Structures are given as C-alpha cells and as structure tokens.
Amino acid sequence: MALLLGAALMTAEYRFSEVAYARSWMALLVTPLQWAADAPGRTWGWAVDSLANRNLLLEENRELKSQALVLAERSQTMSAVVAENVRLRELLNATERTEVDYLTGELIGVNYDPFSHQVIINQGRQDGAFIGMPVVDASGVMGQLISVSPYTSRLLLISDTNHAIPVQVNRNGLRFVAQGTGQVNLLRLDHVPETADLREGDLLMTSGLGGRFPFGYPVARVSSISHQRGEPFMDVEAQSLAQLNRSRYVLLLDYQQSSPEQQAPVTLEEGN
Length: 272
Known about the structure:
alpha+beta; 6-stranded antiparallel β-barrel; 3 helices; 6-stranded antiparallel barrel; Thrombin, subunit H
C-alpha cells in the first residue's frame, strides 16, 4: 500500500506542478519540527564550544597574569640599578649583576591568628621551594618561606613581629634593619641615630646583606619620622610596598648564597 501511494505521489508530481507547490508548503509547515528536533544537538555543540573557549580564555588569563607579574618583578630593580650605577660607575671591574630565577605561586590559605602574619602558597619542595626562599609580589618584597611541604609552603610576611629584613635607603645607601610591627603593611626601623640623613618618602630597598634576600628589591617607603628629646634614636616607620593583605599571585626567587639545607628564615632572633 505504501509503495502504491509513493508511486502515485511521484507520478502526480511529475505530471502536475501544483503537487510540487503543495510539497513546498508542507515542508514549510514541518520546518519548526525540524528545528525543534535539531535544537538539542545545536545546544550541545554550543555548550561544548563555549566551554572550550572559556577554558582557553582562563588559560590565557593565567599566562597573562604570570607574565605581568614577571615583568613587574623585573621592573622593581630598575631604581636600585640606577642608584647603584651612579655610585659605582667609576669602578671598571664591577661585578656584573645576575638575573634571579623564580617560581610563580598563588596564595591558597591564610593564618587566622591575629598575632601571626603568615599565608600558605601552592608551591612546595617538589616544585623547588626551600626554607628561607624570598617571595615578592608585583610591588615589592612580601617575606620568606619558613616551612616547606612537598606541595605547599608557609610564607612569613615582613609585617610579622618575628621578621626582620636588612634594607638600605635608595637615595644615599644608608643601611638599617626593617622589623615587622604586627600591623599589616607597617614596618619599623630601629636604632636610627638622630643625625641620620633620612626623609619621609625615602625608598627602602633590600641591601643584600645577610644572604637571604637579593639586592635591589623594593621593601617599603618611609612614612613617618619622629624624635623625642633626650632619646638617642629616632622613631621611624615605613609602609611596605607589597600588598601583604591583598596580593594573590607571587614570585618565589631562587636566590641562595648557601645550600638549601643551610637556609633559615631571617627573624629578629637571628639579628639579620
């Protein structure tokens, strides 16, 4: 029966043009059904393409953030290099500065103890991290690693009361030790004589002394200077340049002047 009906329709279409016209209208009527039937496939294809594009954009975003962090880290040393060249340009046998290797890391946890300024980052011993490894963000020095596990590390921030870092004034080369105060982004310079050539706004850079932090990285900027009559030293405070309570991405500097087993955190007890 179906074969006879099919043959009849084919013969009618061949002999009568109206049949073809009617077939076109029937095709128009079933078009919405065809769209509806194809919708799941098209939706699935769109979802797959969107997910692939999103993953590609996320990967590109991570790469761009990493590149931006590296460029910012390299630019930090420029002001120190200029000041150093001014002071040492007459020395023909000056040692050429070497570029510091690095690891990129991300903050994955914080210490909720209000008296301890520590965070957890996602780089560990398997990635090449070691105790005493200096860490910077896009603006300045953040601190150093005090413990390392296979896949994560604990970072002691420079604002912690147990941390101290040797610094020097970029303007004139005066050297001091910047100590944490327990307040976020606030450091203190102790034992600064009242005759010291120090001004508000002076940039404090790592001096390279102590063998823990490489020379020339920005640490803080002098924010206040006061002196009480009769006291031998001035009270000097400085604001850290690193965003200690906001930075998420960091660089771990592979800087060692001794073997990793000899590295130890720079703390007030060590006097570095």
